[in-house]
Amino acid sequence: MRNRLAALTLVFLSALAPARAQMVEESLPRDPGPLDFIRGDSYEQWILQSLAGDALVGLDPGGRAVPRLATSWKIQKDGAITFGLRDDARFTDGSPVTAEDVLWTFTELRRDPKASPTKRTILEGAEARVQEGRVWIRSPKPPGRLLLELARVPVAQKDHPERGSGPFRFVKEPAAWTFLRREHFLKPRIDGIRFRLLPDPATVLQALQKGWLAIGAPPARPLTPPATHRVVVQPMNAQLVVWSHAGSGPLQLLERWRQDAFPPGLLGQNARPSRGLWPESLGFEPQAIESEEVGPPRPPATLKLLYVSGEAFTENLLLALRERARRDGFDLQLIPLEQALLVDRLRRGDFDLACSVVVFEPHPWAVLEYLEPKGPMNVTGWRDPQFAALAAGLRDAGGAAWRELQNLWARHPAALPILDLQSVIWVDKRLEVGPGVLGLYLGTPGAAGWRWNR
Question: Which SUPFAM superfamilies match (predicted)?
Answer without folding.
Answer: Periplasmic binding protein-like II
